[in-house]
Amino acid sequence: xxSLETRLKELMxxxxxxxxxxxxxxxxxxxxxxxxxxxxRLSDAHKGDADDLVQETLMALHTRRATYExxxxxxxxxxxxxxxxxxxxxxxxxxxxxxxxxxxEDLFATDLSDAASDRMDVERLLEAAxxxxxxxxxxxxxxxxxIAEVAESTGLTETTVKVSIHRGIKAIATKLKGRAANDDK
Length: 185
What we know:
Elements: H1 4-16, H2 20-41, H3 50-64, H4 74-92, H5 115-126, H6 131-142, H7 147-154, H8 158-184
């Protein structure tokens, strides 16, 4: 299964080339992804605003799609738009977001120049796990879906999802240990 980045980027490139079906699929997948994105960032009192933020972001994506640079990651471009829509929402509604001190490092800008390289490393490491397990790890650890959401969408039990993820991560750790042992020689 393709990673979220790869799948969305392929859909975006096809839609920029004029494929209306790909554009419709892109908007549906992006809407689902954005809903999770906004729900994670809104307080309980403002979770009802998530759908409005998704719509605003989709409209911005539509009007600004020509500005997407095809050699750049699609999700970074999408998240930049979503982040600005969220900030605008906070300003418009005079919402002051508070962050626990444990999460303060998320507030500061970080150098993401190695993000593409890191993503490729993660994909290589994920190859140590079976395909279904790779998908479960991506969806929970990378895309941020909950165990319950993944279990419901795949038809698996929550226990099966947890066990599969645990075994997959264990296989990846074993691969890393083997690679480290070879590097020491």
